[in-house]
Amino acid sequence: MNIQLGKYLAVLPMLSILVACAQLSPMEARNMDNSQIASEAKTFSDHENLANYYDNLAKEMTAKVEEKMALLEEYEDHSHYYGRRGQDYKSHTLANIRHYEQETTAAIQQAGYHRKIAADLQKNEYARSDDSLNQVQNRKIKARLSSEPARN
Q1: Residue 82 has what pLDDT?
Q2: CA 28 to centroid of chain Cα atoms
């Protein structure tokens, strides 16, 4: 009995280390990466890429909603196949549908947000490039005026 207690005490710290070092789920890890990328986005192309990413994510979530809706219809149409567990399957599928719909809405909002920022950055870049072009032309004119010999 004392040997079993020793094994238990030896295994417990190893298990706690494994739990502490366990990876995040892929969805959580992806969300952390995206929030870091979004916070570091500064250029037009960065925000345009993020908007495209969120559009693709919304399409994926919409496809999952459609898949779950078909599954829900199967549970409702053939509930006698699933017995008592049918209600559990149905409620779980409804919860998944709600989750995917919320994720779709959030992704669409994020895509719109990043598109707006990208459009503002592009507009500001065009304004800056137009201003810098005018400045370069003004410098050329001033350079020509100053390089011409004075006529008296």
Answers
A1: 82
A2: 11
Instruction: Classify burial at 50, counting beta carbons within 10 Å of its beta carbon; exposed 0-12, middle 13-18, buried 19 or more.
Output: buried
Q: What is the pLDDT of residues 15-45, one digit of tens each?
A: 566 655 555 444 444 554 666 666 677 788 8
Name the pTM for this structure.
Answer: 0.59
Q: Are 103 and 61 in contact (CB under 8 A)?
A: yes
* Cα separations in angstroms, 144 against 91, 133, 137, 147: 79, 17, 11, 5
| Rounded Cα gap, residues 49 and 31, in angstroms | 16
Which alpha helices (H) appear in the chain, and where do they start and end? 2-20, 26-40, 44-77, 79-82, 85-147
